[in-house]
Specification:
- With 252 residues, the chain is an alpha+beta fold.
- It has 10 helices and 10 strands.
- The strands form 4 sheets. Strands 3-10-9-8 form a 4-stranded mixed sheet, sandwiched between helices.
- α4 packs across α6.
- The C terminus is likely disordered.
Length: 252
């Protein structure tokens, strides 16, 4: 399945559909490789990255409430938003191309729709408040921190409600939300079970979100093989450092 930056909610939707048929745990793997799509343009190299993460989605035990509370997906929009992210683009040597204003319009439209839906749903634990009011942490697709903060502020959300790791990971598309969940646990932002709102927006005017409870006790530690570390070191030496990329993009 290809759903770009909305890969997590789309993948969760398919995993839930399969659970209804087989009633067995589903391994959902979210992965993206941008290194073969961005060419040698340094301004793109420091924004996009390769990444992968996985989640196991299983049926809740009898008599228990599941951790995944809401999953929603979308695919609609005007032509300008559908083509706001293009790959391959023959006008740019086949590399990925992002048209910022159109992407911003897409994200704003979907974010307002998502918040409207959550504001209309009651909190299953306390009916006197909405599901939106019960959200403890927002982990969005990690693409543009400034844009998300500005749009969230206009929608009445505070910066304290949002978690970002984009400055370390870059945009790894479908893998960005599950990796950010892991990092939020590692950073101590999630230290107990919390209700998380995870929205994603992507190429082709797709979007979606999940509302789920994240328990840090069941988030597995990262495993990095030595052979991959050695490969990464050689690749980094050949490609230049992130500092080199920043200087090339913005000057000294």
């Amino acid at each position: 399945m290809v759903a770009a930056c909305a890969g997590l909610p789309y993948g969760m939707s398919e995993a839930i559909r399969q659970l209804q048929e087989v009633r067995r745990p589903v391994l959902l793997v979210c992965v993206e490789k941008f290194s073969d799509k961005i060419g040698a343009v340094r301004t793109s190299r420091m924004i996009f990255g390769d990444g992968a993460a996985a989640m196991v989605i299983a049926p809740a035990a009898d008599g228990q409430t599941g951790d995944v509370e809401v999953v929603q997906t979308y695919a609609s929009g005007p032509h300008s938003e559908v083509n706001s992210i293009i790959w391959p683009n023959s006008e740019f040597d086949g590399d990925i191309t992002v048209y910022g204003p159109e992407v911003k319009a897409l994200v704003q439209r979907y974010l307002l729709q998502m918040l409207g839906e959550l504001g209309a749903e009651p909190d299953p634990d306390e009916e006197s408040r909405t599901l939106l009011e019960s959200i403890e942490l927002i982990i969005p697709h990690q693409a543009n921190k400034t844009m998300i903060l500005n749009l969230a502020g206009k929608a009445g959300l505070s910066a304290d409600q949002l978690y970002f790791n984009v400055e370390r990971m870059g945009n790894v598309s479908a893998a960005s939300i599950p990796i950010a969940v892991y990092d939020a646990v590692r950073d101590g932002v999630i230290s107990r079970p919390v209700r998380v709102f995870a929205p994603g927006f992507g190429a082709g005017a797709v979007g979606g979100y999940a509302v789920m409870r994240i328990d840090p006790d069941i988030v597995a530690d990262e495993v990095v093989l030595d052979v991959l570390q050695d490969t990464d070191r050689h690749a980094a030496a050949a490609a230049g450092s992130t500092s080199d990329d920043i200087r090339a993009a913005f000057g000294e």
